[in-house]
Design the sequence.
């Protein structure tokens, strides 16, 4: 499956890049911009990985990436990236801010990354021992 952008999503990506350069510098902004490409490819490969959108639009999903929420629509042969909003302005259907989800995902991903590095280096992961195990 392929992906394409609405005019709004293209503008959102430009704004994210400019804001990123002003806030974090050229290198970090370009890295973050590049990371969106990988997410778009993932969404095209697994379109239902995102949650159903709270906006009530047919076939619309959302996916959190970094500090942003990507809204996209699924069609039979493509996904259309509709808009990309900063997570601080997005509320879920229960009225809670979703930025905590981003932190949780980052912690979990970091743990898996460290474990994968250790396994690649041939290090053995020791099981955790709890007082009841001794």
Sequence:
């Amino acid at each position: 499956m392929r992906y394409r952008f609405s005019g709004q999503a293209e503008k959102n990506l430009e704004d994210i890049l400019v804001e990123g350069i002003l806030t974090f510098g050229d290198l970090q902004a370009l890295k973050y911009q590049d990371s969106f490409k990988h997410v778009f490819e993932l969404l095209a490969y697994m379109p239902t990985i995102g949650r159903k959108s709270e906006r009530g639009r047919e076939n619309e999903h959302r996916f959190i990436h970094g500090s942003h929420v990507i809204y996209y629509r699924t069609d039979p042969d493509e996904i259309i990236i509709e808009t990309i909003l900063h997570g601080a302005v997005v509320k879920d259907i229960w009225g809670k801010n979703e930025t905590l989800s981003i932190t949780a995902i980052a912690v979990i991903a970091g743990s898996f990354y460290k474990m994968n590095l250790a396994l690649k280096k041939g290090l053995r992961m020791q099981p955790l021992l709890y007082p009841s195990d001794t």
